Amino acid sequence: MDISVSSSTKVTLNFSLSLEDGSVVDTNIGEEPVTFDVGDGSLLPGFERAMFGLQAGDEKELIIKPEEGFGMPNSNNIQAIPIGDFPDDITLEKGLMLSFADAKSTEMPGVVKEIQDGTVMVDFNHPLSGRTLLFKVIIHAVSPAVTH
Fold first, then answer.
1. Taking every pair of C-alpha atoms in the chain, what is the biggest distance, in angstroms?
2. Which long-range contacts (CB under 8 A, 24 or more apart) does 107-112 make?
3. What does the pLDDT look like over 29-67, one tens digit per residue?
4. Is the separation of the CB atoms in 4 and 55 below 8 Å?
5. Is residue 18 over pLDDT 90?
6. Mean per-residue pLDDT, 60-82
7. Which residues pair with 37 in a beta bridge?
């Protein structure tokens, strides 16, 4: 009996993630496949749902809209930070990705959007927010997830 990808399965696959312009963001095609339990938080829920019904041996291209992927950019996630708050040894320029610590000391990436009048505008939205994602998946195995 073939098992289909669902909320209570373990999936072994290879994948390629690209954007609508064809640029590849990440891929493990041609490498060792990865295995994960659906719903364990390691993959986007929208990506997992798009695979529901697929079985071992299936190859498919999945289109994940922004709302099912990393969401839409939120203007509240763009912060103005005084240039004096940055270390002197960093050359600030548009597009530079920096790591920041939030109030709980959790690391958060931020991208410099603009520098003007002594202020640095930093975008803390996920770099893929607002983007349609194209996943190519090659499903190698689907089995019941082991529950504890």
1. 66
2. 110/79
3. 999 999 999 988 888 889 999 999 999 999 999 999 999
4. yes
5. yes
6. 95
7. 10
Give this prediction's pTM.
Answer: 0.79
74: helix, coil or strand?
coil
Q: How many residues appear in the chain?
A: 148
Inter-CA distances, 75 with 47, 71, 117, 126, Å:
25, 12, 20, 12
At 110 the pLDDT is 93
The residue with tokens 């690391």 is: 107
What pLDDT is stored for residue 112 in this prediction? 96
Count of beta carbons in the 10 Å neighbourhood of residue 98: 15
- DSSP-based three-state secondary structure for 42: coil
| Token pair 């004096």: residue | 84
Written as six digits, the tokens of 106 are 């959790």
8 residue type, one letter: S
Q: Where are the alpha helices (DSSP H) in 43-108?
A: 45-51
**Residues 141, 46, 124, 24: what is their CA dihedral angle, to the nearest 10 degrees?**
50
Residue 123 has pLDDT above 90, yes or no: yes
For the chain, the first-to-last Cα distance in angstroms comes to: 24
